[in-house]
Amino acid sequence: MTDWNANDPEAIRVMYDLSGWNFDQQAELAAELAEYEIPHGWVGAELAVPEDFESATDGIFAALEDRLGIAGCGDDAPAQFDAELAGELAADAALTEYDLGDWDSLERSLVADSLAGADIAFRWEGDVLLVPTEDEAAVDDILDEVESGNVIPVLDDGSEADKLPFETLNNFFLAGERLRRDPRDATGLERLLDALQVAHPNRPPSGVELGVWRRSCELAEELADTLVTAEADLDDAIPVAQDLHDLLRPLI
Fold first, then answer.
1. Which residues, including other chains, have CB under 8 Å from residue 144's CB and lie 6 or more apart?
2. Per-residue pLDDT tens for 93-104?
3. CB atoms closer than 10 angstroms to residue 28
4. pLDDT digits (tens, 9 = 90+) for 182-201
């Protein structure tokens, strides 16, 4: 990770208000930032990152907030879908509105990034996306791509080095195969835990749709939790293992 001083008065930084996060949550966030080699520092209860890493940090926040059930990181923090306009909307332009209130923050971030990449002007009014009506067809395509899980968030500097090997997904499948038959199968549990050590819900192996991968991670975590909880009935793991197996069977 590059050296960076959050308290440098000349540093161009982005601040996130984490006063509502507890110590464990902040520690997990710090671990995620370290994993992706994102420079960061603390200024009181606020997290500071270099401006160049804002998009990557927003993606990490979205994933953590979803996983830990945390509300947004404060009104003063730059929500990842509160980006600058890709281009100024003309004052007299006809606009089309899309209510994306049911979409999670990561999906809205992907929409914003895709619109900016396509040089389509837009702005947000709460959860409502406004775009020029003349670009409606292109925006529809972008929304369809994001909703289908075909747009993958970038949580690094663009390098392909962080791509997970397909073996990770294969291990999830093989764990599901063994554990659906016998939840006490030690080899199946070992494969499952090994895969979870390297899996990240927003870094799918090459060729795997984001939505399928995220669901695989959810099932794998649920399965592991059931198997390692002392008071749990191991038979409860069987339908979860079956779901994991069935989800991944078409990909193997």
1. none
2. 799 999 988 887
3. 14
4. 999 999 999 899 888 888 87
Judge contact between 72 and 105, C-beta under 8 A: yes
Summary mean pLDDT of the chain:
78
54 contacts: CB under 8 Å, gap ≥ 6 = 14, 78
**For tokens 């669901």, what's the residue?**
215
Cα–Cα distances in Å, from 222 out to 28, 29, 228, 237, 243?
19, 21, 10, 8, 11
Structure token digits, residue 55: 């998009």
**What is the C-alpha to C-alpha distance for residues 201 and 104, in angstroms, rounded to an integer?**
14
Higher pLDDT, 74 or 232: 232
71, 67, 145, 72: which is closest to 113 by C-alpha?
A: 145
Rounded Cα gap, residues 84 and 82, in angstroms: 7
For 38, other C-beta atoms within 10 Å of its C-beta total 23
pTM: predicted TM-score of the whole model, two decimal places: 0.43
DSSP string, 81-98: T-PPPSSPPPTT--EEEE
- The SS3 of residue 97 is strand
**89, 130 contact by CB (below 8 A):** yes
Cα 150 from Cα 78, distance rounded (Å) = 25
Pick from 164, 216, 159, 224: nearest CA to 189: 224
Q: Are 213 and 204 in contact (CB under 8 A)?
A: yes
Contact assessment for residue 110 and residue 150, using Cβ atoms and an 8 Å cutoff:
no
Taking only the tens place, the pLDDT of each residue in 121-144 is 888 787 788 899 999 999 999 998
